[in-house]
Amino acid sequence: MITERIEKRQHEKEELQAQLAVEMAKQVTLTTPQVRAYLYSLRQGDKNDENIKRGIINIFLRAVYLYDDRFILVLNGSNTPITIDDILLDEIEEGLEGDLTSCAGCSSLVADAPPE
């Protein structure tokens, strides 16, 4: 009776070890040079390529909260949100002014917020 339980537990242990080996094989470990090479490829890539843009956003950005007068970015690697208010928004708009005016098909119309 006791030997049967021991054998059963040993069999369960072997099954669990096999499952653990399978799960460990699924893990991807990246080296520092691999990460640097990927980030370098993002930096050197075409800034208009949608895949590059998505890659950057997926890596660095966790959440965006939009408000009427500001927006909040929550970046990966930090639980401290970054608040971007009117002052910084004005600076961003000034910096992008040339890019925005040359954008064909862009609209300068701003929709009102939905009724509350």
Record keyword descriptors for this entry.
three-stranded antiparallel beta sheet, alpha+beta, 116 residues, elongated, single chain
Explained architecture:
The protein is α+β, with helices and mostly antiparallel strands. It is 56% helix and 12% strand. It contains four helices and three strands. Strands 1-2-3 form a three-stranded antiparallel sheet. A hairpin with a 6-residue loop joins strand 2 (71-75) and strand 3.
Summarize the structure.
This protein has 116 residues and is an alpha+beta fold.
Low-pLDDT ranges: none
Which oligomerization state do the chains in this entry correspond to? Answer: single chain
- As laid out across the biggest beta sheet, the strand order is 1-2-3
Radius of gyration computed on alpha carbons: 25 Å
The shape, in one word, is elongated
Structural class by SSE content: alpha+beta
Note the total helix count: 4
The biggest beta sheet reads: 3 strands, antiparallel
N-end to C-end Cα span: 70 Å
What series of H and E elements makes up the topology? Answer: HHHEEEH
- Number of beta-strand segments: 3
Beta-sheet strand percentage? 5-15%
Q: Give the integer mean of the pLDDT values.
A: 78
In helices, the fraction of residues equals: 55-70%
Number of domains: 1
